[in-house]
Every structure is written in C-alpha cells, then in structure tokens.
C-alpha cells in the first residue's frame, strides 16, 4: 500500500519535477509484488533487493547495487501489556535522487518522520541521505526505549528472586531472557551496516553524513552493551532461582524425613505388639500398656526436640 510519495526540491515538498533537481521519497506499507514492481521499473530497483523488501523477515544488512544501495532494518516495539517485543522490517532503496522505504508492521511511524522533516527544509535540502539518517536515528532511539523497558522487567525479576515473600516464576524468567535474545538478534547485525555508512565509502550515500552515522552507531553499541549486561543478569538470576528452589526442596525433604523418623518409632513398637502371639515380653504387666504409650510419647518428643534444634523442623 502506498502511504505517501513526494518530490522534494530545496527541502520543500513539490508537485512538479524539475529535471536534475531534488529527490523523490516514496513510502510503502506491506506492499504486494505488483505494487512495488511499478517502482522497480521506474527507479531501476534490483530484483534481488525487491524480493528481500517484499518478503521481509531478513537479517539487517547493507547491499550495494549498480543503481542504488539497499538496507534491511529491524523495527522493535515493546508491548507493555504483554511485556513482549514486536519486531518489524524496513527495506530502504536509496541513491542520490530516490529513497523508497518499504515497511512491514507499524513499529515505527514513518508519517511522523516525514512530517518532522518537512518542518525543517534545511535538513531535507541535504537530500535522500538526510532521510536515511533520520530513519536510523529514530530506529536506534526506539531501541533505547525498548532496552529501558526490558531493564525494568529484569530489575523487577531480579528483586523477586531474592525476595522470600514473592517467589520468582521460572517461566517469567525464561520469557524475559528469550525476549532479550530476540531483541539482540534484531539489533546486533545493524552494527556492520552502520560501520560501513560511517566509513563514508558506500556508493549512493552522501559522505558528509559519515559523522552522523558514526554517532548513531555509538548509540547502538550502548544499547547492545546494555542488552548483554541484562542477559548476563538474567542468566545469573536463572541460576540463583534454580539454586534457591533446590535449597527449598532440600528443606522440605528434611522436614518430611524428620516427621517420618518421629513416626517410625511408634509404628515399629505398635507393629511388634500388634502381632497375634500369646507370649511377648511385658505382655502381662498391669501397667504395660500405659508404659508403652508413655515411652512412645517420650521418644517422639525427644526426636522432635532434636530435629527442631538442628533446624529440621
């Protein structure tokens, strides 16, 4: 679906195309093959890049073709209701005169980017590379927001692991760790394209933007460092949670064993005296029944005291 298409001359949106001036910015959302083929023919887009842009679900990368460069980017959004991340795709075809942005999913609002840039003609005047830089900058800013939300989840779960009153759910720990891995998988491959853009050696890209791309790369590296730190914390929290569960299970087993030991004595004595024989020791004593009951109570009480003293009960 075509979201917007316009020509910008001297940073101003124009409906008239002057030969050799300005650049064209096309925005597409979840386009079908026939929709993008029109732009493929019009702007000489490479068929392999078009295929990647239509299919989506590609690893972030930067490919250079004779008539344009092509980038695959990942959008990431944090769903606060489910504490899950939502990943989308952006394909960017770019040269000095054209930038075509193909978006899958609605994780990053391109309309707001276009509207903001149109309010700053001095930036749009710098050409299609200025649009690419703005998209990458917004994208990494969004990564920072997602990392912040994930960090809150990690810190909350870390506190729960060591809180005796609030048991940390193991399933939730695994879920957050999986979200961290998915987030890292989405953003980490972007380092290589940004390194190339910062080197000012990519065809069809204005070399004067190399410092800006380097700044975006530095922000991305900070996000990746934070994700790696959170992943290590979750790994430690998982091990700590499993260790605490094992400790609690050992405590429970000790308590069970202690009560079994207390119950074993009267069970054994009652079993012996419950046998159907005529001659057993002390069977004819007048107070034998009471003596046996008293002995059982005393032994059981003694065992209880011993176990209690050793923190088994």
UniProtKB/TrEMBL annotation:
GO terms for cellular component: plasma membrane. It holds the Pfam family CorA. SUPFAM superfamilies: CorA soluble domain-like, Magnesium transport protein CorA, transmembrane region. Its main location: membrane. It catalyses: Mg(2+)(in) = Mg(2+)(out). Keywords: Cell membrane, Ion transport, Magnesium, Membrane, Transmembrane, Transmembrane helix, Transport. One of its GO terms (molecular function) is magnesium ion binding. CDD domains: MtCorA-like. The chain crosses the membrane at residues 256-275, 287-307. It is found in: Cell membrane. It is a multi-pass membrane protein. Mediates influx of magnesium ions. Alternates between open and closed states. Activated by low cytoplasmic Mg(2+) levels. Inactive when cytoplasmic Mg(2+) levels are high. Belongs to the CorA metal ion transporter (MIT) (TC 1.A.35) family. PANTHER family: CORA FAMILY METAL ION TRANSPORTER (EUROFUNG). This is Unannotated protein. The lineage of its organism: unclassified sequences, metagenomes, ecological metagenomes.
């Amino acid at each position: 679906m075509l979201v917007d298409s316009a020509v910008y001359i001297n940073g101003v949106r124009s409906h008239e195309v002057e030969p050799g001036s300005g650049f064209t910015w096309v925005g597409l959302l979840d386009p079908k093959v026939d929709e993008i083929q029109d732009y493929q023919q019009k702007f000489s887009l490479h068929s392999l890049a078009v295929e990647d842009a239509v299919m989506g679900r590609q690893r972030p990368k930067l490919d250079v073709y004779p008539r344009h460069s092509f980038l695959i980017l990942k959008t990431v959004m944090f769903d606060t209701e489910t504490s899950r991340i939502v990943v989308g795709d952006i394909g960017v075809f770019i040269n000095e005169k054209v930038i075509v942005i193909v978006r899958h999913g609605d994780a990053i609002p391109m309309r707001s980017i276009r509207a903001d840039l149109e309010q700053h003609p001095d930036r749009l005047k710098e050409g299609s590379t200025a649009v690419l830089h703005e998209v990458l900058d917004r994208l990494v800013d969004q990564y920072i927001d997602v990392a912040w939300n994930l960090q809150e989840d990690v810190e909350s779960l870390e506190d729960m692991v060591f809180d005796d009153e609030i048991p940390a759910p193991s399933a939730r720990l695994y879920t957050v760790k999986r979200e961290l891995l998915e987030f890292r998988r989405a953003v980490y491959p972007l380092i290589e394209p940004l390194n190339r853009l910062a080197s000012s050696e990519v065809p069809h890209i204005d070399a004067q933007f190399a410092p800006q791309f380097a700044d975006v790369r530095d922000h991305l590296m900070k996000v990746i460092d934070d994700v790696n730190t959170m992943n290590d914390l979750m790994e430690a929290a998982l091990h700590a949670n499993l260790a605490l569960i094992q400790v609690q299970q050992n405590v429970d087993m000790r308590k069970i064993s202690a009560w079994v030991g207390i119950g074993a004595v009267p069970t054994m004595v009652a079993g012996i005296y419950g046998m159907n024989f005529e001659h057993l020791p002390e069977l004819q004593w007048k107070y034998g029944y009471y003596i046996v009951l008293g002995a059982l109570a005393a032994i059981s009480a003694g065992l209880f005291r011993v176990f209690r003293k050793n923190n088994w009960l």
